[in-house]
């Protein structure tokens, strides 16, 4: 049986390699590959465009950093949603967290938004839930989390 393919997009080579290794070793359920730029990610998505006659991309999930040279992760997310209509799950994994980034990420229907440093076990939990069919629930939960963040951005004194 084919394992779901996860694409990790992060220009930090060591972190990218650690995430890929963590996913591949986690429970042998997933296979992860790397891209170190948005352009490389688009090339990987194109390369895996049709998965063994299934009519969908072999890459089923993307772990996506925001801050990268050239096209950033939010721009890649927008391109991914325009070009690949099928449901490819996306989790943002970034050191950047502000209202604008949250707005763009939730507009791109991400299943989660993790802030670095992160717990690799949390990423595996996200993958497990996604591949168990909880994508819609996860998108709603992320949107609700964004609404809570919005309140803190609007009223920073209340978050202390």
TrEMBL record:
Sequence ranges assigned to domain Response regulatory in this UniProt record: 5-131
Key words, A-Z: Phosphoprotein
Domain of life (superkingdom): Bacteria
Residue numbers of 4-aspartylphosphate PTMs: 65
A GO BP entry: phosphorelay signal transduction system
Record carries keyword Phosphoprotein: yes
Pfam family, one: Response_reg
InterPro entries, A to Z: Bact_response_regulator, CheY-like_superfamily, Sig_transdc_resp-reg_receiver
Keyword hit for Kinase: no
Coiled-coil intervals: none
Signal sequence interval, chain numbering: none
Protein name: Response regulatory domain-containing protein
């Amino acid at each position: 049986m084919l394992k779901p393919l996860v694409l990790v997009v992060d220009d930090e080579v060591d972190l990218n390699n650690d995430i890929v290794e963590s996913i591949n070793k986690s429970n042998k359920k997933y296979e992860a590959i790397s891209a170190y730029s948005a352009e490389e990610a688009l090339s990987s998505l194109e390369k895996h465009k049709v998965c063994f006659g299934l009519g969908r991309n072999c890459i089923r999930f993307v772990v996506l950093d925001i801050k990268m040279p050239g096209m950033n992760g939010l721009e890649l997310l927008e391109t991914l949603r325009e070009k690949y209509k099928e449901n490819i799950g996306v989790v943002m994994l970034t050191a950047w967290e502000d209202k604008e980034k949250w707005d763009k990420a939730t507009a791109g229907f991400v299943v989660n938004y993790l802030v670095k440093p992160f717990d690799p076990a949390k990423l595996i939990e996200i993958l497990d839930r996604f591949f168990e069919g909880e994508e819609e629930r996860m998108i709603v939960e992320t949107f609700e989390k964004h609404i809570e963040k919005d309140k803190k951005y609007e009223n920073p004194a209340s978050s202390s």
